[in-house]
Specification:
heterodimer; A: alpha+beta; Cytochrome-c3 Hydrogenase, chain B; 3-stranded antiparallel β-sheet; 8 strands; about 15% strand; globular; B: alpha+beta; Beta Polymerase, domain 2; two-stranded parallel sheet; 10 strands
Chain lengths: ~375, ~240
């Protein structure tokens, strides 16, 4: 540098945030180029949690691979499982029986609530509202207890099988879910009293990390982040799967595409999920849990893409079958991976403290990004 | 697992009129000792399909639409075929003008595919080819389409980052996992694996086990305890590990 530097000059510096930073929600490293406290540019360094899930999918049979997928987005393992089971069912031409379909929808929506609760708690904690974390985890625990009663696991659940579900619902399942769901809207009101009109929360989230609808589509952002930008698009409505057409629910959308709108979208989504569960729990049909199919799963030769609306966005599976018991290629289209790409655009021009808020608002899980 | 393999072998057999007596069920406790099976050849996948694939099951059906006709008209020589498989529409094209074709798919007025859902690759080592798969979605028309193109080893393909920004990381991942090189990509480097990683893991000739043994030896200084097969060796130039003896 040729110009003479003085004590009061500002100069660009590069700061490495993570991979052990508590607010990066895992092992994400963000390299920030700063001018004072203002972010000029950012680069994400990912891959610290890479386990080669797609390669494992080529080395295991279809049935064996399903539990591995729970380890991707471990916050919403039920969605991962549902997506893959439906993909293979579609390729096989098998449909799960209605009873299994209803159990699937109820569990997936409960899982969406746990995922959003974890997001809400940690996102608020990052921004400095500590109480919400304790409240959110209180309700999350109730759902995890239901999961534990149903299948024995709390996070990596492996609830469904290709062709249906493995387990019958337990005695008292409906009562337990009903009790939870009846109380839940009041609990969401509690979170909202803490945040929605909280002045500090508004200051920290309004106008932070604005993503226009055009940019969001160009960057492939999906899920609540896309809906926060005002695009009314949800795969449950656009390309319905499972038995979602049987349910009444709305798609909440934001207006400005900022962190506050994405917060409101997720809060509303929790209410809508509760609505879906309360409808489903009343009309679980009788019947078998598994479709009639061979125990050896050998899909026909060909390829298929199927996607579902996971809590974080579009979770897609692209599977190429060579007619054997193992997939020739399994590709996971992870929502967090694609959404994280928008970080660079969203943080430019903001303060370092806002980077924390924006990482939180994207709702990423590194297990899914790195696979 | 042992039971599953056994089931599999039974279902493999064509159901002849005179069904042979099934082997006596293995006594509990020692399922393997009961029937002396010849050991499987090293590296062989369990349950390789012996019988030719049955003709039943879903087949590729011809598919055409105004959009396909428009592509044929505009990029005549580049178009290979279009078909539908289990209700999913697919277009196969040649790789040379892929960025132009993608721009056309995004900007056309018939079905504007404004969202690149996914871009990935499939390795077909027998043909020494990589199949690059683009999954597109149109928000206005609520439609999916898959565009496929094939490139040979060491061939470059045009990047579509200029068409959809999403492709940036997706193409970096394909490069990272398959070694497919993109022309005009703004930042083509590894994304999930470390910069100094040797080889491309999702290629079919990439041996995970040997890679693991080497990594453990290099970074932890111990023997990983993984078993080797005779003849596994790392290729001097490319770094790929071939299981052939």
């Amino acid at each position: 540098m040729s110009t003479k530097e003085t004590l009061f000059d500002t100069s660009e510096i590069t700061v490495s945030m993570g991979p052990q930073h508590p607010s990066t929600h895992g092992v994400l490293q963000v390299k920030l180029k700063l001018d004072g406290e203002r972010v000029l540019d950012a680069e994400c360094v990912i891959g610290y949690l890479h386990r080669g899930v797609e390669k494992l999918g080529e080395a295991q049979t279809y049935g064996q691979f399903v539990p591995t997928l729970d380890r991707m987005d471990y916050i919403a393992a039920v969605s991962n499982c549902l997506g893959f089971c439906e993909t293979i069912e579609k390729l096989l031409g098998v449909t799960a029986p209605p009873r299994a379909q209803y159990i699937r929808v109820i569990m997936t929506e409960l899982n969406r609530i746990t995922s959003h609760l974890l997001w809400l708690g940690t996102h608020a904690l990052d921004i400095g509202a500590m109480t919400v974390f304790l409240y959110a985890f209180r309700e999350r625990e109730e759902i995890l207890k239901i999961f534990e009663n149903y299948c024995g696991a709390r996070l990596t659940t492996h609830m469904f099988r290709i062709g249906g579900t493995q387990y019958e619902i337990y005695d008292g399942f409906q009562d337990q879910v009903r009790t939870f769901i009846n109380d839940f809207p009041k609990k969401v009101d509690e979170y909202e009293t803490l945040l929605t009109e909280n002045r500090i929360w508004l200051e920290r989230t309004r106008g932070v990390g604005v993503l226009s609808a055009k940019d969001a589509i160009d960057l492939g952002v999906t899920g609540p982040a896309l809906r926060g930008s005002g695009v009314e698009w949800d795969i449950r409505k656009a390309k319905p799967y499972a038995v979602y057409p049987d349910f009444q629910f709305d798609i909440p959308v934001g207006e400005h595409g900022d962190t506050y709108d994405r917060y409101m979208v997720r809060i509303q989504e929790m209410r809508q999920s509760a609505r879906i569960v309360s409808q489903g729990i009343e009309k679980i049909p009788d019947g078998p849990l598994m479709a009639k199919m061979s125990k050896i799963i050998k899909p026909p030769i060909g390829d298929i893409y199927h996607s579902i609306e996971a809590p974080k966005g579009e979770l897609g599976y692209y599977v190429v079958s060579d007619g054997s018991t193992q997939a020739y290629r399994t590709r996971v289209r992870p929502p967090s991976f694609v959404n994280l790409q928008a970080l660079r655009k969203m943080v430019a021009g903001h303060m370092v403290a806002d980077v924390v808020a924006i990482i939180g608002t994207l709702d990423i899980v590194l297990g899914e990004i790195d696979r | 697992m042992a039971d599953e393999e056994k089931d599999n072998q039974q279902t493999e057999k064509p159901a002849g009129p005179a069904k042979p007596v099934p082997p006596a069920p293995a006594p509990p406790g020692e399922p393997k000792a009961a029937v002396p099976k010849p050991p499987p050849p090293p590296g062989a996948k369990p349950a390789a399909p012996a019988a030719p694939p049955k003709p039943k099951g879903p087949q590729q059906e011809p598919w055409s639409s105004p959009l396909v006709d428009a592509i044929k008209e505009k990029f005549g020589g580049e178009f290979i075929k279009s078909y539908s498989f289990i209700g999913q529409n697919q277009i196969e094209v040649k790789k040379d003008r892929i960025a132009e074709i993608m721009t056309f798919l995004r900007d056309n007025t018939i079905v504007p595919f404004n969202y690149l859902v996914d871009e990935t690759a499939v390795h077909w080592p027998k043909d020494e080819q990589f199949e690059i798969v683009y999954i597109l979605y149109s928000f206005p028309k609520n439609e999916h389409v898959r565009v496929k193109t094939r490139i040979k080893e060491f061939e470059e393909i045009e990047s579509v980052v200029s068409v959809w920004t999403t492709a940036d990381w997706l193409e970096r991942e394909v490069y990272d996992m398959f070694g497919v090189r993109y022309a005009n990509h703004p930042n083509l480097k590894r994304i999930l694996l470390p910069e100094d990683w040797v080889g491309y893991p999702l290629r079919k000739d990439y041996n995970i086990r040997l890679q693991d043994v080497e990594w453990v030896r290099k970074h932890l200084g111990i023997d990983s305890g993984q078993k080797f097969y005779v003849g596994e060796a790392r290729h001097e130039d490319t770094g790929y590990i071939t299981p052939s003896g």
